[in-house]
């Protein structure tokens, strides 16, 4: 069995279970998957996070904690000054050093567009100090 989150063109979102991905495709092609709110058969799969089993999740959390410890041990936390400092180092206005901090999505995208070598990290700061 597989669960999909589905969207219809009328902005309704719903979930439904299917015997398999192939079963969904077959039912969808035949117009048998419909929105429970409006009846539209023009539905599509929405983006969903994969289901992660507990043991795999625990291993993933452990690896993320180890990554966080490595980053914190080998770089300076600059908080909300991250964007300004990363850009200044890239432009040669500040000496290069390893830093980590916070940036809004648009700010991070702008750094990447400018060629600043940054990488989003998959964790939230423990405490905001800046």
TrEMBL record:
InterPro entries: DUF1178 (IPR009562). This is DUF1178 family protein.
């Amino acid at each position: 069995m597989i669960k999909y989150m589905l969207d219809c063109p009328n902005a309704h979102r719903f979930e439904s279970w299917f015997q398999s991905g192939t079963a969904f495709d077959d039912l969808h092609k035949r117009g048998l998957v419909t929105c429970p709110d409006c009846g539209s058969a023009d539905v599509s799969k929405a983006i969903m996070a994969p289901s992660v089993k507990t043991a795999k999740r625990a291993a993933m959390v452990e690896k993320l904690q180890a990554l966080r410890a490595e980053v914190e041990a080998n770089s300076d936390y600059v908080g909300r000054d991250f964007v300004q400092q990363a850009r200044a180092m890239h432009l040669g206005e500040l000496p290069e050093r390893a830093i980590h901090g916070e940036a809004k999505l648009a700010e991070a995208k702008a750094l990447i567009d400018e060629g600043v070598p940054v990488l989003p990290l998959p964790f939230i700061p423990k405490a905001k100090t800046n």
